Amino acid sequence: MNEQNIFIVRTGEVALKGMNKPYFEKMLQNRISQNLREFKKQAEENGWSPVSVRRNEGLIFVRAPKEIPEEKVLRQVSRVFGVSSVSPSVESKSDLDAIGECAVSFMMKQIEERGIKTFKVEAKRADKSFPVKSPDIARIIGGKVLKGCKVLKVDVHNPDVKLFVDLRRDETFLYDRKVSGMGGLPLGTNGRGLSLFSGGIDSPVATWMMAKRGMVVEVMHFHSYPYTSQRAQEKVERLVRIIASYSGTVKMHIVNLLPVQEQIVMHCPEDETTILVRRFMMRIAEQIAKKNGCQMLITGEDLGQVASQTADSLVVTDQSVSLPVMRPLIGMDKMEIIDRAKEIGTYETSIEPYEDCCTVFLPKHPVTRPKLSKILESESKLDVDKLIQDAVLSEEVKEIRY
Ligand code: ATP
Ligand code: MG
Fold it and tell me: CB within 6 Å of ligand 1 — which residues?
């Protein structure tokens, strides 16, 4: 009996990377290792068999001691960006008698635990030098299961269990399910960005989507304390922690925007407040991004969703900075964003009713078609550089861990 649970990890898009494939695979292997760090520690402390992550023939194999529940390992591995699917497996020597024995004990367990009645075997022979062809392997193993598990019948159309036999040169793996991963690319393979992160529904999804494509994300949050509460900020930290559960530790930059907002409210037309505040957010974020080696800004803006997100507003917002601004949600409908937020686990936290700095000085009728010339004229009444510099200097930094 194995002392370890084995998981076959498939790599999806990483496999398409041609010449760079080894680099992407190595990055993925590292990310999976990192996501299993807690289990490694646990195994060491308790003297269990070790946790290992190895690459072989385009697949990644994770081994973890039996003492750690299979579902827990599965959850940690399937959350890693770049993983397309994971199968908890059992391992056998690559000979038909051994595979047959393994298949019988695998099925016995399924009968005990799930009361299954029917099955089907599918086989794949990665080792073409093996003398028996795939359909014959399936037939032979099916026969052994029928003999060893008298209660089972074959059903090729709608079996309770479909047993996959993956025969390789050194060993054979048997499994009956593929758990979908997140897809995407391993974190760290696509630069670094700074995400403007509110407590709303959109920006956590936007952040997650960029991280999913391999970008290391840092987050930038603005509050207007004491107009916004400590509890509101804690909610944002909880959201960042959910992102960290996928991406590992996230660096969070926090700035009080109130001094900027007060100047705007005091000196500029009320209907321009929103767009002016947004331009300041972008410029402060840009400075912090540059200081931290972030190549681009990320927002959760979505075309047409609110006044500050009309085409004209987005253009005038962009004209405040020189770094590229990524808006991964730009073409999505709100319902699609909500569905994604539910899927990644941020939605329930996002809808907790806390105030955001953007709602503190909300104008009654915000401009929806701002003109850059007019906005620049309003900004000329402010000491823009000093306001930005002071904000950047007041920055607080936290490392948010899962
Ligand atoms: P979200 O659900 O992300 O809050 P939203 O639909 O409420 O988005 P806005 O409030 O207009 O839209 O914000 C648009 C974008 O501006 C957000 O997605 C986020 O990137 C950024 N943003 C808004 N408020 C903040 C904040 N307090 N701190 C940092 N970024 C913010
Ligand atoms: Mg918001």
Answer: 196-198, 200-203, 220-222, 281, 299-301, 305-306, 308, 356-358
Residues 211-259: tens digit of each pLDDT: 999 999 999 999 999 999 999 999 999 999 999 999 989 999 999 999 9
Crossing angle of helices 258-267 and 273-291, rounded to 10°? 140
To test ligand 1's pocket by mutation, which of 194, 201, 202, 297 has the most ligand atoms within 8 angstroms of CB?
202
Among all bound ligands, the one having the nearest atom to the CA of 356 is 1
Rounded Cα distance between 269 and 266, Å, is 9
- Contact at 8 Å (CB) between 189 and 26? no
Ligand nearest to the backbone CA of 200: 1
pLDDT digits (tens, 9 = 90+) for 80-105: 999 999 999 999 999 999 999 999 99
Are the C-beta atoms of residues 107 and 145 closer than 8 Å to each other?
Answer: yes
Helix (H, G, I), strand (E, B) or coil at 306: coil
Taking alpha carbons only, the member of 398, 156, 192, 189 closest to residue 291 is: 192
Q: Which ligand is nearest the CA of 351, by number?
A: 1
Mean pLDDT of the chain: 94
- Closest residue to atom 22 of ligand 1, CA basis: 198
Best probe residue, ligand 1, of 198, 340, 344 (max atoms within 8 Å of C-beta): 198
Distance from Cα 302 to the centre of ligand 1, integer Å: 10
Q: Please, which pLDDT band fits residue 1 given cuts at 50, 70 and 90? A: very low
Ligand 1: which residue has its CA nearest to atom 12? 301
| pTM of the model as a whole | 0.91
pLDDT at 19: 78
52 φ, ψ to 5°? -135, 155
